[in-house]
Design a protein that fits this description.
four-stranded antiparallel beta sheet; Alpha-Beta Plaits; seven-stranded mixed beta sheet; alpha/beta
Amino acid sequence: MKWSEIAIHTTNEATEAVANILHEAGASGVVIEDSTEPEREHEDRFGEIYDLNPEDYPAEGVLVKAYLPANSFLKETVQEISESIDKLQQFDLDTGRKAITTTEVDEEDWATAWKKYYHPVKISGRFTIVPTWESYKPVESDELIIELDPGMAFGTGTHPTTVMCLQALEKYVQPESTVIDVGTGSGVLAIGAALLDAKKILALDLDEVAVTAARENIRLNRCDGKIDVIHGNLLDSIKEPADLIVANILAEVIVTFSQDALDLLEPGGLFIVSGIISAKKEMVKEDLLDKGFELVESVVMEDWVALVARKKGE
């Protein structure tokens, strides 16, 4: 079977949004090649090993790649992708060159080649992300293993925004907590909350493909009994209160439902948000404070920010 590799040249700021557009176009996974990656100083607090070849990355900017079946509808699909990227300007995102190229490849070439970039990674004091095809034995007695198949949905669980969310969950989730994961994607944050002994987790996503992927990853991690996955838009249909709400999503989207999050949280409940590019930090921070949250913590990783806010006690 023939597949088409669609490569979009964009910026670091727009990477997540472009990846989501490709996902919505039918891609079951993306590869992100950031020109700055080989030159970055990577923290190795948790034993990560980095051996990156600059030739595997673009000279500048970011390439976001996805694979779609090579068929007669490909031209229209690429046009729709291009139009969706153009619309990102309304969110004040710098999309850079927006150059789109397509290359035809054989199934056996793309189906396994990207796996060389993805290995077990310890991302916090307790969490380790492990791809389903890798064998891994826990190093620590309290280590928490999250198995993911990134081919089922975009994201490998190791992007800075996801890492910061998981680290925050590790710090703040209490046994018997009720947690809501908004925009669950692969389900990795919901799984993390379940492994931390949260009593009940609700995982939400507007994309039906993501809902299916999250359910499969949740089953893979044997967390079915604790997590309900629902197809829905943000918190629109949710009525039950929660102790903690986590959202790894665009800054512009966070401010549209922060009031709903405040209304649903129990007094003293926490709102953990990430997916925030550094330039948008103050916008989200001011929105949370205006809504009545108090800021607990601000974390920066590379060009990304995560905020932890608390609903004031009543």
